[in-house]
Amino acid sequence: MGVGRGKGEGGGRTGRGGRGISGGRSSSSRESRALVDRVKASAASGSWEEALAHVAEVRSSGLKLDGRVHTAAIRAALDGGKARPVLATIAAMRADGFVPNISLYNKAISLCGRQGAWEDAVFLLRDAQRVSSPGQRRGVDVVTFSAAVAACRDGGEWRQALALMEEMQAAGIKPDQIAYGTAVSACAMAGQWEKAVALLADMRRSKLRPDVVAYSSAIKACGAEGRWEEALGLLKEMQENGVRPNLITYTGAMEACGRAGRWNNALGLLAEVRDRGLRPDTFTLNAVMDALGRSGETEKALALLDTMRPPRPRARPSPGTPPGFLPSSDPPSSYDSRRVHSAATLPTDGVEANDSIDGLKNGGGRLSGGGGWGGGGPRADVFTWSAAMTACIEGDQWQKVAGMLEEMRGDGVPPNAINYNLAIRALGKGGDWERATGLLEEMKEAGVATDERAFNAAIEACGRGGCWERAVRLVDDMHTEGLVPDSLTYRRVTEQIVAQPR
């Protein structure tokens, strides 16, 4: 029997049998309608459990329900938003010889996908296929397959998603933009950039134009692997095809440039974002910060960080303060990007770096007080600061890093393990083992978990500072904290001991 809409809201009927409630005795359609009304009323009031309880009570007595009651029960279960009750009500309907219509199957498959139950979603697809017959008015279609592909995507099963795409085409069902876009995002989420790009090519061969979601997903996949040339190629292609990039698209392209250390291209994209009237968010600016950090472009990184920090409060002038001299409200620290750095001016692919960065301040009107956005713009987070620290280390300006922890706290951004590790690493370059080991203690006091990288950086600091005894004690501390020293740990300690004069 085909998967049909049935009569009214009910599904199709398999085999022979009457309507209503049956089970060795006949029952009027009035009883059936009354039960449907009770189920619907319970579902409408948000009591989907009560609705299913009505159905379960009748079935437990050995009576069978008609398609309308089963359909009402499935809809109630769908309203509850939980996959298991939906699967149970569909199974009950099938056991009583009825078939849900394809719309219910589609909704149930989508619900399973949203809850990460991709195997249940594929099971429902197979069940719908089993009860479908050629030539019926509406059976398994592109919507059904697309819902199953989305479930596999959300479950991280990109291979299964591609297999369903192939199966769909083999069955004579032509994938649409949604199906292709979902498959592209499935590959992108799994880091399969080549598969994602290949699917875009399949779309074009099928005379379908990829939309901004499909392009953005493929570009993001390229970005995760640092395939900056492919990412920029797709960005160019989509614009040539009349598809307007959005902020997500640009961010993905910037991530690709960042992972490849192409800071000049990342800044060029940032300028393009500004020129298009798009407002960068923290994720967008962090992608640029990553590019600058990996390349050791310290001045530019600190200039961009400056635009993402909150405005500095200004102190009131004391009596006798000369005009034009308004002191800051806080004492100078060892580092403050807003006090000692301004936007860099080196050209990059025809785009001035200071134009890209200063444009963030000017895009909505120049804002005073230190930060570039006032109270409503993108704010630096732990990743932003990590990228700035990396830029200082890679740019051989490691002395500026230790003070950044204080600046972070002053901006209301508690440092995380990565921030501490970078600060310890920076101190290690200068052999400042006392401050480096002090940061290990500070991490514990702040409730930030130490790890092997933090200890290895501190051990390196001890080595550069000529304190191998402290390095040995740090290895003992690692064991005490349940950490396992690796080969790098032992090599650094051994090198320090061997290097000692005899």
Automatic annotation (TrEMBL):
<keyword id="KW-0677">Repeat</keyword>
<dbReference type="InterPro" id="IPR002885">
    <property type="entry name" value="PPR_rpt"/>
</dbReference>
<dbReference type="Pfam" id="PF13812">
    <property type="entry name" value="PPR_3"/>
</dbReference>
<dbReference type="Pfam" id="PF01535">
    <property type="entry name" value="PPR"/>
</dbReference>
<feature type="repeat" description="PPR">
    <location>
        <begin position="141"/>
        <end position="175"/>
    </location>
</feature>
<feature type="repeat" description="PPR">
    <location>
        <begin position="416"/>
        <end position="450"/>
    </location>
</feature>
<feature type="compositionally biased region" description="Gly residues">
    <location>
        <begin position="361"/>
        <end position="373"/>
    </location>
</feature>
<feature type="repeat" description="PPR">
    <location>
        <begin position="281"/>
        <end position="315"/>
    </location>
</feature>
<feature type="repeat" description="PPR">
    <location>
        <begin position="246"/>
        <end position="280"/>
    </location>
</feature>
<feature type="repeat" description="PPR">
    <location>
        <begin position="176"/>
        <end position="210"/>
    </location>
</feature>
<feature type="repeat" description="PPR">
    <location>
        <begin position="381"/>
        <end position="415"/>
    </location>
</feature>
<feature type="region of interest" description="Disordered">
    <location>
        <begin position="1"/>
        <end position="33"/>
    </location>
</feature>
<dbReference type="Pfam" id="PF12854">
    <property type="entry name" value="PPR_1"/>
</dbReference>
<feature type="repeat" description="PPR">
    <location>
        <begin position="211"/>
        <end position="245"/>
    </location>
</feature>
<feature type="repeat" description="PPR">
    <location>
        <begin position="451"/>
        <end position="485"/>
    </location>
</feature>
<protein>
    <submittedName>
        <fullName>Uncharacterized protein</fullName>
    </submittedName>
</protein>
<feature type="compositionally biased region" description="Basic and acidic residues">
    <location>
        <begin position="1"/>
        <end position="10"/>
    </location>
</feature>
<dbReference type="InterPro" id="IPR011990">
    <property type="entry name" value="TPR-like_helical_dom_sf"/>
</dbReference>
<feature type="region of interest" description="Disordered">
    <location>
        <begin position="307"/>
        <end position="373"/>
    </location>
</feature>
<dbReference type="Pfam" id="PF13041">
    <property type="entry name" value="PPR_2"/>
</dbReference>
<feature type="compositionally biased region" description="Gly residues">
    <location>
        <begin position="11"/>
        <end position="23"/>
    </location>
</feature>
